[in-house]
Design a protein that fits this description.
By secondary structure, the chain is mainly β. It is built from no helices and eleven strands. A hairpin with a 6-residue loop joins strand 4 and strand 5.
Length: about 130
């Protein structure tokens, strides 16, 4: 069992930056890939980014590639999502998630939200125009 907690959401103007963090108290956190999903009002939850347990493999949604950067610190049991050049369409609740299928996996690929086993409660990001 992994309990995930997100932080760092807020209100930012278009073009600005925010940094989200995902933390867990369990040491097993370091053996899981970390995924970020987001869900905008009236839309389905969508994949944003993922990072392997070692941090050597990452994956991004096309819509955020080049603007968002995912990283992790296994000593601190945290994973971060640096979001730059934010757009109003990035407005959503952002969730941190982990999947048993990605435990100890060297490579990460985008997975659907249905494949996730553990979720945080989400943090709201609002980008004003």
């Amino acid at each position: 069992q992994v309990q995930l907690v997100e932080s760092g959401g807020g209100l930012v103007q278009a073009g600005g930056s925010l940094r989200l963090s995902c933390g867990a108290s369990e040491r097993t956190f370091s053996s899981y890939a970390v995924n970020w999903f987001r869900q905008a009002p009236g839309k389905e939850r969508e994949f944003v980014a993922a990072i392997s347990w070692t941090g050597s493999s990452t994956a991004y949604a096309t819509s955020v590639k080049g603007r968002f950067l995912i990283s992790r610190d296994n000593v601190k049991n945290t994973a971060n999502l640096q979001m730059n050049s934010l757009k109003p369409e990035d407005t959503a609740v952002y969730y941190c998630a982990a999947s048993n299928a990605q435990k100890w996996q060297a490579l990460v690929t985008p997975l659907s939200s249905n494949a996730m086993d553990y979720w945080g409660e989400g943090t709201l990001v609002t980008v004003s125009s």
